[in-house]
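S2.1 Query sequence (Formate dehydrogenase gamma subunit)
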Amino acid sequence: MGPSAMKPLPLKAPDLSKVAEAIAAHRDQPGALLPLLHAVQDALGYVPSEAVPMIARALDLSRAEVHGVISYYHFFRSEPPGRQVVQICRAEACQACGAEELLAHAERVLGCARHGTRADGAVTLEPVYCLGLCASSPAVQIGAKLHARVTPERLEQLLAESLTDAEAV
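Output structure tokens follow.
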């Protein structure tokens, strides 16, 4: 059975509770969907597919509407991320300054494809659109830290500093 045919594991009670807490905190505010999705992702690291029907019911939306928002915005994840997340900007300014080559270099160095997590779960590589450092392109975010004017050599240095010995590139 291929990965796309595998069913996700059911959410554990603590995670279901976190989803329920996020719903309770946001369901009555206008435009609740985005803040609610952010709250779930902040709590769990991703928005699990099991949470979609719960969120849809609470906000009187269809599951397709909720899923559409999750899949449209690059910052929402449907799968748990690796222990470290590396984001490389692919917006126009960064592309003009070598972001595509930087992303290809990151794939080789990290040993995982874009939108993927390395087999050991250490790192997830995400192409994103605009990290807000357009005048200092190309931009990379590792964890919560932004980096500007990143070259392939600088990326390797940043990764070595950011990943623990067990997760080394």
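The first strand starts at residue 84 and ends at 89. The domain at 84-167 is CATH 3.40.30.10 (Glutaredoxin).
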